[in-house]
Specification:
mainly beta, two-stranded antiparallel ribbon, 9% helix, binds zinc ion
């Protein structure tokens, strides 16, 4: 059965200088389609600016506690911004 994957970035995860456990690194971000990366880089939330969609210069993607994040640098203030990537499997019968 064909299933479409839809990636939704929820851009509300900005940890700043708070303590974080060491994330597990991987290199999947560069494997994502260009359109998807552009979308992720445009749909951001920066805590320091307090504004959405300022854009970021992408850095990396990693998994932490079973969740996937993409991390980059705010194009306006240069702070770290993170977005969680939520993958939902949509079956054709769910779209009716
Ligand atoms: Zn910012």
């Amino acid at each position: 059965m064909d299933a479409a994957c839809i990636y939704v970035a929820v851009g509300v995860y900005q940890f700043g200088s708070k303590k974080l456990t060491m994330p597990k690194m991987n290199c999947k971000y560069s494997d994502r389609p260009e359109m998807e990366r552009e979308w992720l880089e445009e749909n951001t939330w920066c805590d320091d600016c307090g504004k959405p969609d300022l854009g970021m210069n992408p850095g990396r993607e990693y998994e932490e506690n079973g969740r996937t994040f993409v991390e980059g640098v705010c194009k306006v203030c240069g702070c770290t911004v993170r977005s969680e990537i939520i993958t939902k499997i949509i079956r054709p019968e769910d779209l009716v």
